[in-house]
Amino acid sequence: MNLVTLDIWDTVVRRNCHPDDVKNATAQYIVNRLNDNLVDKYSSLETILLLRQNIELELGRKSQAAGFDDEYNVKDVLVALVHKISINKVSEDVAHDALEREIKFELDNTYIDPTIFSFISELNYDECFFISDFYHDTTFIKRLLKHHNVDFVKEGISSCDVGYNKRSGRLFDWFFENNKELVDSCSNHIHVGDNEWSDYSIPQKKGIDARLYLPEVEHKKRGEIAERYHKASEVIKELSNNRLQQSSFSIGEEHALFYYAYCREIIANANANSLDKVFFMTREGEFFKKVYDRINSALPDLEKGPCSQLLCVSRIATFFPSLRSISTEELMRVWNLYSTQSIQALFKTLGLDIELYTPFENKYSLPKEEEIQYPWLDDRVNSLFSDQEFTTMMLFQQSQRRLRLSDYFTSIGLISGGNYGLVDIGWRGTIQDNIAYIQPDSKFTGYYLGLECYLNEQPKNGLKVAFGPNNNHSGNQSDLFNIVAPIEMICNSENGSVVGYDDSIPPQPIRKIDPNENVIFSDFTSDYQRGVLANIGDISSSLANIHNVRDAMKAEALKIWRGIIDAPSPLLADAYFSLVHNEEFGLGKAVDKSQRIYVSDVLKALFNKESRFDLKTKLRSLFWPQGYFKRTDISRFEKMFSYYVLKFAIVYNKIRIKLSRAK
Question: Which residue of 16, 253, 504, 651 could cross-link 535, Cys pair, CB 3.0 to 4.6 Å?
Fold first, then answer.
């Protein structure tokens, strides 16, 4: 009777990725599951992989000290890993879920060697068992074989279950001792595997007829997978190589990796946190949703993100309905952002008709156009918000707005009690705050390119995740926030801003479309976004079955972001400085970016207070010296002059903010 024992990995079962990619995928799952509870120094997958290897080494040494081989069980590894990288103690569910995620990843990224069955069939075996050196237990290996409908081998042993391995030869000894009757009844014992030491030399020393199994096609494929894995960072760099920026389409192609990396992070985090649905908030979310959907469609089932849904909202459409009271205290949520505001601008911020204020204008000697610095300290404003007639009118308006907004949410599946993702560009996540106050029984995870320091108390039912800089945690790369309007421009939509919801059933978003703003969308942004989307498919194909690129991809993506700001294409700069930018929330008006800085502006500002104010206002709207320098519609002298004026203004503003915070 012939007995055949089989190695499992790269003999019976093969991976379509590198073995360490399994651990990388698990590391990413844990990072996303922990979110803000992750120790900062373990934010990269590389450091987590190294830590896991060290934990494995330590557990192996403990096993040896106890008289066994250097074996360990992955369950113990993941428990120790999660404990080590968590700021605060977390539920055991995290390690348990990470283990199950790793198992599912193995099931999803493996296949049966195409020639192993024919190879062992020629051996005329009567009994077939597996003997595997592996950190998952025997139960897992059986599950793996069953998943792939393997019926020629169903029983065996994994090294981590008994503490002995094939490398030392002791696992073969264990097999002999625990299957003595079977072994004694066999006239021939053949072992098949791919490792020259563990599967060939050692079993031969044990008197076993060993056969090295290295089929040419699969062995070559394994080498190619390993080569791709070790060259992953080079692949990332190639994907973002400079192209000839001769059109907005080609610029978009070059920047595609930036958006790909952002949306892959969203997908991974949403999966780790079992979100019900991911809502993409207008306006920039309309573009991000297209990127997300294109990436998602190319991913294997295990890695696909939750269903996406467009959420037609804005600060104007959600802020007023979210107010917990009609009071100056509650309005600090907007005044912390805009400390100087007129009543007219406030009503625009609330999405209210200024005519509603007319009965109160003379009563409190408070002209609607008057710019009020620190409104919460103004006696007239405080008197207005203490007026019962005024607050009653405001509460009535709010109840109508809130009802329509809630009905709209229900119509698109944003139902109370859910676990949802919200995607936007940034920069403090105030729309998420508004929605969280409106739906206190739901949980919201917000995804943003970057997050500035919060100025308001954060709702308890929300979490915010930044792809790039997060000034609430550290100041790393915070200079990317010096100018964000160009990023908003290239991610914009032509569909206008949502200003409210109509009376239809269900309510439909009311959009305000600015033809002047859409000129730039037609001339530049539309083709730019088409270029991005055109390259997303190629990137998805290039990165298929590579899971060690997260760190390199993120670094390259942030490099692209920095390049957009620090070294923009003249085409992009010209588009930006032709823009009419919507700033109705807070400022109550649109900002014309096509203005220019003249020497006379600076000279007048030296001697005249009003001229200084005008210059400050103009500089704020043009806060992008690198882009201004790339404009093609102005002289070189004006470029140089304006560049240094803007640089000075930025430095001055930073010093002013720092001093005000120090007081």
Answer: 253
Q: DSSP for 436-493?
A: HHH-TTSEEEEEES-BPPP-SPPPTTEEEEESS-BTTT--TTGGGGG--HHHHHHT--
> Which residues have a Cβ under 8 Å from the Cβ of 380 and sit 6 or more positions away?
364, 365, 366
Cα dihedral value 427, 429, 434, 435, nearest 10: 140
pLDDT in tens, 387-418: 999 999 999 999 999 999 999 999 999 999 99
| CB neighbour list of residue 45: distance below 8 Å, 6 or more residues apart | 24, 27, 28, 31, 548, 550, 551
For residues 262 and 288, the answer to whether their CB atoms sit within 8 Å is: yes
The vertex-429 CA angle with 618 and 564, nearest 5°, equals 55
Task: Give me the residue label for tokens 């206008």.
Answer: 496
Of the CATH numbers 3.40.50.11720, 3.30.750.24, 3.40.50.1000, 3.40.50.2300, which one belongs to the domain with range 2-15+110-227? Answer: 3.40.50.1000
pLDDT at residue 586 is higher than 50? no
Distance between CA atoms of residues 152 and 128, nearest Å: 7
| Residue 369 CB neighbours (<10 A) | 10
Task: Assign 621 a pLDDT band (cuts: 50, 70, 90).
Answer: low
- Closest to 489 (Cα-Cα) out of 520, 512, 454: 520
Within 10 A of 486 (CB to CB), how many other CB atoms are there? 21
Query: Which helix (H) or strand (E) covers residue 205, if one does?
Result: helix 202-205
- Per-domain boundaries in the chain: 2-15+110-227, 19-108, 321-405, 560-662
| Structure tokens belonging to residue 407 | 């009905």
- As to burial, measured by CB atoms within 10 angstroms (0-12 exposed, 13-18 middle, 19+ buried), residue 623 is middle
In sequence order, which residues have a C-beta less than 8 Å from that of residue 483 and are 6 or more positions away? 565, 623, 624, 627
Residue 208 has pLDDT above 90, yes or no: yes
- pLDDT of 581 over the 80 cut: no
32, 101, 293, 423, 491 from 267: Cα distances, Å:
10, 15, 10, 11, 19
Q: What is the pLDDT of residue 474?
A: 84
End-to-end CA distance of the chain: 89
Return the higher-pLDDT residue of 11 and 232: 11
pLDDT class for 578, splitting at 50, 70, 90?
confident
pTM confidence score: 0.89
265 and 467 Cβ atoms separated by less than 8 Å: yes
Residue 590 pLDDT greater than 80, yes or no: no
Beta bridge partners of 123: none
Residue 65 CB neighbours (<10 A)? 9
Which tokens is 155 given? 């029983």
Cis peptide preceding 228, ω within 30 of 0: no
CA distances to 16, 141, 343, 499, 556 from 146, in Å: 18, 9, 69, 56, 41
Distance CA 131, CA 618 (A): 74
What is the strand order of the sheet 308-311 is part of?
308-311, 277-281, 419-423, 443-448, 462-466
Supply the pLDDT for residue 660: 62
**How many residues does this entry show for the chain?**
663
Percent above pLDDT 90 for the chain: 79
Name the residue among 245, 256, 258, 247 with its Cα closest to residue 567: 245
In terms of pLDDT, which residue wins out, 103 or 597? 103
Decide: 631 and 639 in contact? Cβ < 8 Å. Answer: yes
